[in-house]
Amino acid sequence: MASPYWIKTLINKTFSGRFFFSKLTHNPVIGRMIDHALFDGDDIFYLTKDRAIPVNKSVDLPESLMIPSLVADHFIREANYHWIMDFCICRESSHCRDYPVDLGCIFLGEAAVDINPKFGRRVTSDEALAHAMRCREAGLVHLIGRNKLDTVWLGVGPGRKLLTICNCCPCCCLWKILPAITPEIGCKISRMPGISVRITDKCIGCGICSKNLCFVDAIHIENQRAVINKESCRGCGRCVEACPSNAIEVIIENSGFINESIRRISNLVDVK
Question: Is residue 229 situated within a structural domain?
Answer without folding.
Answer: no
